[in-house]
TrEMBL record:
The chain crosses the membrane at residues 5-22, 28-45, 57-80, 100-121. This is Na+/H+ antiporter subunit E. It is a multi-pass membrane protein. The keyword Oxidoreductase does not apply. It comes from Aquibacillus koreensis.
């Protein structure tokens, strides 16, 4: 992936040299032309196109921001009720992520989301223990983490 980024930057510089315009806007145009060329020649050079990971990372960021906003609203509604009807608990979340980076990223996203906190990991790092403020439906929470965070993390890292 790093080689593709360097190649793309090199193509953008070559574009600026060929057009004889040395501005940031021409660099961006050259970079876009380089992305298109790399996409066209990805089959011949036999590599995974790096922009798909960039798009997946942007998707992960947007999903995290959405979950952060929704969780803030849910926590505020829990706290502002006249009677606290919270059902706190701990969930054992089985993860399919393999590398330490992936598990760390998932646990960070879970911890940064209001109302949830990663407490511990199993010895094999395949189970994450999560404390939640309101655990009405354990399977629903596990499914949301799996579909929202874990699937997109796999897209970014694989």
């Amino acid at each position: 992936m790093a080689l593709q980024i360097l190649l793309n930057i090199g193509l953008a510089i070559i574009w600026m040299l060929l057009t004889n315009h040395y501005s940031f806007s021409h660099f961006v145009i050259g970079y876009i032309v380089g992305v298109i060329l790399l996409y066209i020649f990805r089959r011949f050079l036999q590599f995974d196109f790096y922009m798909s990971r960039v798009i997946a990372a942007i998707k992960l960021l947007l999903i995290f921001m959405k979950e952060m906003i929704l969780s803030n609203i849910q926590v505020a509604m829990l706290i502002l009720r006249p009677k606290l009807k919270m059902n706190p608990g701990v969930i054992a979340y089985p993860t399919e992520l393999k590398s330490g980076l992936e598990v760390t990223l998932l646990s960070s996203l879970i911890t940064l989301t209001p109302g949830t906190l990663v407490m511990a990991f199993s010895d094999d790092e395949r189970t994450i223990y999560i404390h939640t403020l309101d655990i009405d439906d354990k399977d629903k929470i596990i499914n949301e983490i799996k579909t929202n965070f874990e699937k997109v993390i796999m897209e970014v890292t694989h």
